[in-house]
Write a structure and sequence with these properties.
This protein is of the alpha/beta class and 256 residues long. Helices cover 45% and strands 16% of the residues. The chain has 2 domains: 203 residues, 3-Layer(aba) Sandwich (Rossmann fold), CATH 3.40.50.720; 33 residues, no CATH class. Helix 4 links the parallel strand 4 and strand 5. Helix 1 packs parallel to helix 2. It is globular. It starts with 10 loop residues before the first strand and ends in a 6-residue tail after the last strand. 47% of the residues are buried.
Length: 256
């Protein structure tokens, strides 16, 4: 961070922050002292997260953005810089699923998933790093997944998450000289609306679905959003300044 900055002046952007892992991350970064820009496709849906962030005694700003759209991203990051301050931390969390077996997967579902996860991370990082390089300090954390290692019915999602790992390692090389670290967190099974929707799609009651996953995990439970937020908090902090280009699997067991 530049010498004139203090922890209380740092600004974090979290995409997909209206709910789930993104909301938990926004709350955790607020407890760490960051002001938080809460980004999601639906700005109005960010209200609860903004309220939770402000209860931690820091500033918050809800911003609607389509992370797959270049103009929308540039506008959103410019608004954050103008209203909260230049972003020092970026968490690329926005994501969707369009699961299907390859022979059933249409081009629109492939493009939508690649667009939000991979194109979105590219656009958001490209916009945010301009502010970080000027400050000489920055943290980028990308959300990958254990699905990057392969998962039936998720060719699009797995490809996007694996791509984010290569993206992470490349940017760590490119941006390190500017005081910017770039890392990825790869969650295992985490209880969110997205995983509940997966259970529904498979026709399995969610409680049963969770029990099965817990039984197959060395730490015999499922993950919760706060598990992932804690890992992101580490990567976003001062203490992780010599850690970059890493993929941390937060999955209740060894992966990778």
């Amino acid at each position: 961070m530049s010498e004139t900055s203090t922890p209380a002046q740092r600004v974090a952007i979290v995409t997909g922050a209206a709910r789930g892992i993104g909301a938990a991350t926004a709350r955790r970064l607020a407890r760490d002292g960051f002001s938080v820009a809460v980004l999601d496709l639906d700005e109005a849906a960010c209200a609860d997260t903004v309220e939770a962030v402000e209860k931690e005694g820091v500033r918050a700003l809800a911003v609607g953005v389509d992370v797959a759209d270049a103009e929308s991203v540039e506008t959103a990051v410019a608004r954050v810089a103008a209203e909260l301050g230049p972003p020092a931390v970026l968490v690329n969390n926005a994501g969707i699923t369009r699961d299907n077996l390859l022979f059933k997967m249409d081009v629109a579902d492939w493009d939508a998933v690649i667009g939000v996860h991979l194109r979105g991370a590219f656009l958001m990082t490209r916009a945010a790093q301009t502010h970080m390089t000027k400050a000489g300090w920055g943290r980028v954390v990308n959300l990958s997944s254990v699905s990057a290692l392969g998962n039936r019915g998720q060719a699009n999602y797995s490809a996007a998450k694996a791509g984010l790992q290569g993206f992470t390692k490349t940017l760590a090389i490119e941006l390190g000289k500017f005081g910017i670290t770039v890392n990825a967190v790869a969650p295992g099974f985490v209880v969110t609306e997205m995983t509940a929707a997966t259970a529904e799609r498979l026709g399995v009651p969610f409680e049963e679905f969770k029990a099965r996953r817990a039984a197959a995990t060395p730490v015999p439970r499922v993950g919760v959003p706060d598990d992932i937020a804690h890992a992101i908090s580490f990567f976003a902090g001062e203490g992780a300044g010599f850690v970059t280009g890493q993929v941390l699997y937060v999955a209740g067991g060894p992966r990778g």
